[in-house]
Design goal:
Number of helices: 7
Largest sheet: 5 strands, parallel
Distance between the termini: 43 Å
Strand order of the largest sheet: 2-1-3-4-5
Order of helices and strands: EHEHEHEHEHEEEEEHEEEEEH
Shape: elongated
Helix content: 25-40%
């Protein structure tokens, strides 16, 4: 099974350095076997260190978490819940010597990809291979059609997000060459692109009610024709004004989406 894909990020959380080294060796070998062009591997011994370095949301992120850390049998689950709250697209794999903990993972509503016993290295390799192949297939589904996925620059690199998740962009007061992205579920990201750059890179996708905003037309919940403002899904307490000079053209453009 041959695959050629972009960067995959593997974050390991295990307080046993020997286990970290074993996992790193397995991942490098699997990357070679599966023809992954680029991988990034980071290993952490403490939950707080991983949390402080959590990746931007992406289906390219794979977290491998030991359930038990420093005697806390639920530590990995707590970290997994934190990851899931901040990255709905990542894959999470749990490692443990307590195979009877499987039911507990469901109570945390983490949607783990797998649950692997640590006491069999041969099984660990084979199971991780199957898991990574599954992530690769998921990643492939993100690649087509490309117009439904946006790749956006940030201070730490690039992350990809479905257009359907985006609510709006607004200018940043911290710099002329950056903006903020807000999602429908109230996540916020600082983007190293001006609104004009976003318009140029993704033409005919967003509407511009005001010079300081770009909105996803499919996220518009309501338009107040009398007071000239709109409200977006997930942001019912935020009124975005429609500039007087843009009002007629904005409504005309909005009508094209037949929403």
């Amino acid at each position: 099974m041959d695959f050629i894909f972009t960067m995959f990020n593997f974050y390991i959380l295990d307080d046993d350095r020997t286990q970290q080294i074993l996992l790193e060796k397995i991942l490098h070998k699997l990357a070679e076997e599966l023809h992954l062009s680029h991988i990034n591997i980071e290993a952490f011994s403490k939950a707080i260190d991983l949390k402080n370095n959590i990746l931007l949301p992406s289906p390219q992120n794979i977290y491998i978490l030991d359930l038990e850390l420093q005697g806390d049998k639920h530590a990995g689950l707590k970290v997994g819940k934190y990851i899931r709250q901040n990255d709905p697209y990542a894959s999470i794999i749990f490692l443990t010597v307590h195979e009877d903990f499987l039911s507990v993972t469901y109570s945390y509503r983490i949607e783990a990809l797998n649950f692997i016993a640590k006491n069999n290295n041969d099984r660990l390799y084979d199971t991780l291979k199957l898991d990574i192949e599954q992530v690769i297939r998921k990643q492939a589904r993100w690649s087509f059609p490309s117009e439904n996925i946006l790749s956006l620059k940030t201070s730490t690199g690039v992350f990809r997000i479905p257009l359907a998740d985006i609510s709006y962009f607004t200018t940043s007061s911290k710099g002329a060459h950056s903006s903020f992205l807000f999602t429908k579920d109230n996540r916020q990201y600082r983007i190293n692109l001006k609104l004009g750059d976003i318009e140029k890179n993704y033409p005919n996708i967003f509407l511009k009610p005001h010079r300081s905003y770009l909105v996803n037309p499919h996220a518009i919940e309501s338009i107040n024709y009398k007071e000239h403002y709109l409200v977006l899904l997930g942001h019912t307490h935020t009124k975005i004004n429609i500039a007087r000079g843009r009002y007629r053209s904005f409504l005309k453009e909005f009508a094209k989406y037949n929403i």
